Amino acid sequence: MKAVILLGHGSRDPLWREPMDAVASRVAARGVAVRCAFVELQEPDLAAAAAALVREGATHLTVVPLFLGAGRHARVDVPRMADDLRRTHESLVIELRPFVGDDARVLDLLASIASE
Asked: Where are the alpha helices (H) located in the chain, listed in sequence order?
């Protein structure tokens, strides 16, 4: 089974995650198993979200970092976390996508919204 983890920074403000949950709902509506995970300040972390999906039968995880900029988390922490997952779940295929701010489609959409 293929599954997706949407990975965000996290915040002490519980309302911060609402857009991530909205994206997760849209992914789930496409018939894809999905979980949100956070680098810090919120639960679950990446390891816990991955473990939950593995228990549900996931054999392939796609991790999508929902970061606009290439800060330390996107450049260093997230790849390290993905490597940790690979060591923990050796039979699991783990695909780490580039952070979303590196995708021209996202940038084009933001430019369209900003220029309306």
From this structure: 18-29, 46-55, 72, 78-88, 104-115
Give the separation between CA 114 and CA 28, rounded to whole angstroms. 28
The one-letter amino acid at 99: F
The residues that bridge with 94 in the sheet, in sequence order, are: 61
State the catalytic residue, choosing from 9, 60, 73, 89.
Answer: 9
Per-residue pLDDT tens over the stretch 25-57: 999 999 999 999 999 999 999 999 999 999 999
Q: Which among 81, 62, 75, 82 is positioned nearest to 101, based on CA atoms?
A: 75
Neighbours of 13 (CB within 10 A): 10
- Known catalytic membership, residue 73: no
